[in-house]
Each structure stands twice: as C-alpha cells, then as structure tokens.
Amino acid sequence: MLRFINIKELNIIERLTLSTLTKQYYKKIKTFLKNAELIVRIKKYKEKGKKSKFSIHSRIIAPKLLLTSQTSDWDLKRTTHKNFKQLLKTIQTKFRKSKKPRLQQK
Prior knowledge:
Elements: E1 2-5, H1 12-32, E2 37-48, E3 51-62, E4 65-73, H2 76-98
Parallel strand pairs: 1-2
Antiparallel strand pairs: 2-3, 3-4
C-alpha cells in the first residue's frame, strides 16, 4: 500500500512527478518486501525567489521490519531519487547482513 502525507502542499506538476517516481520505486521495493506499506511525507518550504526546498521522509512498514529515510534538496526529482536510492540501499544491506530469504506474502 502506498500513502502520501501533505501532498496537497504541491502543485499539480509536482504531484504528478512525485507520484510517478514513487510508484516506480515502489515496484522495486515490492520485489524485496511483498507485504509492505510505504508512507511518503513531503514538506515544501517557503519559496526563495523562484525555487523552493523539498523535504521527503519515507517509511516502509512490513512484518517484522521498519525502515526510514529522509532527504531534502532544492529539486523535487533529485530529492525523490536520493530518498528512494537510500531506502533501497538500506533494504539491500538488511537482507545481505541477515542472509534471510525475502519476506513472502501469506
């Protein structure tokens, strides 16, 4: 399941870019965790001229597993990519260290 928090702060174009990128990365996450819930919290800071800063906090809640990541940057696409790459890296190291098989859906 995929949930967004504070997405109403973004305009339509920013919402579309965030949702498409999140859905792409959620497919990758589902290869590791079959029964996972992804919660993405976005915060848009006040605009400085033409730019505004974005902060993304994401959480994965799965059976027996809780992972978080946080990034912030001036570009929404870059922030989203950084956040999910960091999240995927922690997932991969978690499974590599424990040498557990991937969590199966019941």
